[in-house]
Write a structure and sequence with these properties.
Two copies of one chain form a homodimer. By secondary structure, the first copy, chain A, is of the alpha/beta class. Chain A has twelve helices and 16 strands. In chain A, 33% of the residues lie in helices and 19% in strands. In chain A, the strands form five sheets. A six-stranded mixed sheet of chain A has the order 5-4-1-2-3-16, sandwiched between helices. A four-stranded parallel sheet of chain A has the order 7-8-6-11, with helices on both faces. A two-stranded antiparallel ribbon of chain A has the order 9-10. Chains A and B meet through helix 6, strand 9, helix 9, strand 11 and strand 15 of A and helix 6, strand 9, helix 9, strand 11 and strand 15 of B.
Chain lengths: 418, 418
């Protein structure tokens, strides 16, 4: 029995360019001189593998792949699922049963830190079983927190979007200065790391009078007094103040600053850190406040992609197929920065066993000494990643994203009871 | 003394294309064969007129005007200020003193419903005084609620932005369907009218399975039971549900649905309607929720303008100068729809005295009978307004918005004590 099926799966939160990776994987797999028999995609991630819910990508022609490559979100679906360690091997057995049933010789697993742990463990399990499976990781995350790679596909586009949003909202609030002072707070993604918050600093271009005036990241503990003093100083100087808040900022006690409040029924609700910060300013300083939470919008803005990010998303897909076919199991294509200006990069193989579950935080030299902004070094690092635009196909005034039709693969195993 | 100064002022919330109107006004005024001596702009709206805080636009060359025309926010500033009716004429006297001091013969006032009231009153006052001032209104508002015009400059771009955002976020959440069901709520602007909420329906393209699945507008009172039943039905069918909420939706009692909650200090805070709706769903149905509030981002997204909207923003600016020079005081250029498909429109003069302070709401034929969505007729009305894209100049990966330098006009009057 030949294991000539390549299986591709998404894991965790999707990005604006994750489908560009998927399209690159499918395209590259088709160009292997017939070595790859079928290219399947798991429907809704590893859960789809467990359920034997698999998509045959053969029906996607060149035009469909091209459309796929410029559509945000994960066209094949994704899920959040950690490979259990304490289930007596039940999940692992099922996964390998599905691999066997569909002759999966190559598994490409697209995800973040947790997914790279899964890649390392699946490859180790295959070796232990003497199974031919080659499992390769493909990096992606808007959080930019994977170790072993200079940056992560998905981050550059989200960074470009949040920086543009802060630039534009900053022009808006600067127009509306009133007698009382007003504040605009934007909460961006980043539970443990401040990479996206740092990206908004690109909007200021180093000018202390331009938005954002303050950037709060989880790596610096939130100093309420210093923060309020800065808000007041900026507002007294300019009439307004703009603040970027990472969703995961923490107080001096290390606990998250998410707002805790009670609704009419006395039910405790977690609000966002951005709202908590906006309300704090209003309460203490009396300023008017507006706040924005782009939420999913920041990681799905296909209408305003970074061309650099998209190129890297495609490159890791192509490289992952190469690694798989070369038998480089347990590896992940990382991005290595060769030089900053002009930006040059290359793909290099990274051993997932060495990086799994680690988390890359903002280094201290990227954070201002007072913890209220990021440094020029942070901006220099991020700038190349947002460069270049992608002209989207438009239909009736909106980006022409069209779901691609697909055929499901016939099931061969009993249903998964897990 | 010749009243050959044209004075231009912004009022109220700004838009992504309000500067395009400003640039068109300045350009048109310069082409009047020398009839217009100076073109001034009020710094921060009518408040700038009262403070005699005026900008001389002569320093803006063609390149600067071109940059101005593609920069969101109000480059000259704006403010919220209602002409008082009970101050014994103190404000009116001061305004006319400033007009006299700077020989203002034409005042172009760019704003919404309240501003058109000011235009009508200023023109009536000029007639009463035998003053040569010709005051002309220029429409703008992302809320699209000015009476007498088929649509309002600023709305089309905001509509394109929120529809695109819902389209993209809808693809994201559809990728992440889990076992429990998940909901995405986006709160858009619209205190009293649901035009922007209705615009998000363009993302679905008439497909009931695509985002947004529910659209809540202030014109339909919020029926909690019917709403929750629909959320449940959609989530059971698709695994997820997306909801657009106008910030100003109202309950059966007519009161706003803004969330009321108490913070740790027992301080009552108003949250957004979107958050209130998201929490309601979570509490009653147990679904995971994400919510987004684009806030200022939706009215300042210069990176994703509607070309139609920008063209109309320029056209009302040009027409307003024509009206002013022709002595058509108290008028506002409105947009008349000639046909829907292909879209054709023209500018027509509207008497501000007949429309001042009125508010155009969504007509009942634009709202679904159950109050949980908008109709195909609403989409047909909005679609032409989001058509066309504007290629922005980009610098270092971000839109190249650069503040234009300007010269202030020397003051000639004692300071304003108001």
């Amino acid at each position: 029995m030949t294991y000539d099926t390549l299986l591709y799966a998404h894991s965790g939160g999707v990005t604006a360019v994750i489908n560009a990776t998927a399209a690159a994987v499918i395209d590259a797999a088709r160009r292997q001189g017939g070595r790859v028999g079928r290219v399947l995609a798991a429907h809704r991630g590893i859960g789809g593998v467990l359920r034997e819910d698999l998509i045959d990508t053969a029906a996607l022609d060149t035009a469909a792949l091209e459309r796929l490559a410029r559509t945000p979100g994960g066209a094949f679906g994704s899920c959040r699922f950690d490979l259990p360690r304490d289930d007596g091997g039940v999940v692992m057995d099922r996964l390998f049963a599905v691999f066997d049933a569909h002759r999966v010789g190559w598994l490409l697993y697209n995800g973040g830190n947790g997914s790279m742990d899964a890649v390392a463990r699946l490859q180790a399990e295959a070796r232990r079983r003497g199974h031919p499976l080659v499992c390769v990781g493909v990096p992606k995350t808007v959080d930019n927190d994977i170790v072993g790679t200079d940056c992560c596909p998905g981050f550059g586009s989200a960074a470009k979007y949040v920086a543009t949003s802060m630039l534009e909202a900053g022009l808006d609030i600067a127009s509306m200065v009133g007698a009382k002072g007003s504040v605009f707070v934007m909460e961006v993604m980043g539970r443990n790391t401040g990479w996206l918050a740092a990206a908004t600093a690109l909007a200021a271009g180093g000018d202390p009078d331009r938005a954002p005036h303050i950037v709060l990241v989880p790596e610096a503990s939130f100093d309420e007094a210093a923060f309020l003093a800065r808000v007041q100083a900026v507002t007294e100087r300019l009439g307004h103040c703009t603040v970027t808040v990472s969703e995961g900022i923490r107080g001096a006690d290390g606990g998250p600053l998410m707002e805790k409040s009670r609704d009419a029924r006395g039910y405790v609700q977690l609000g966002g850190a951005g709202l908590a910060v906006a309300r704090l300013i209003h309460e203490r300083l009396g300023y008017k406040f507006h706040w924005a939470i782009p939420d999913y919008m920041q990681r799905s803005a296909g209408h305003w992609l970074s061309a650099t990010d998209r190129e890297q998303a495609q490159a890791v897909g192509l490289a992952a197929v190469d690694y798989a076919l070369a038998g480089q199991g347990g590896m992940m294509p990382g991005i290595r920065r060769l030089q900053a200006e002009p930006y040059a990069w290359e793909i290099e193989a990274v051993d997932t066993a060495l990086i799994a579950n680690l988390e890359r935080k903002l280094p201290s030299e990227f954070i201002a000494a007072d913890g209220l902004h990021v440094t020029a070094a942070a901006c220099e690092y991020i700038r190349p990643l947002i460069m270049g635009e992608v002209t989207q196909s438009v239909r009736a005034g909106l980006p022409d994203y069209r779901p691609c039709g697909w055929a499901k693969v016939a099931v061969r195993l009993p249903p998964w009871a897990g």
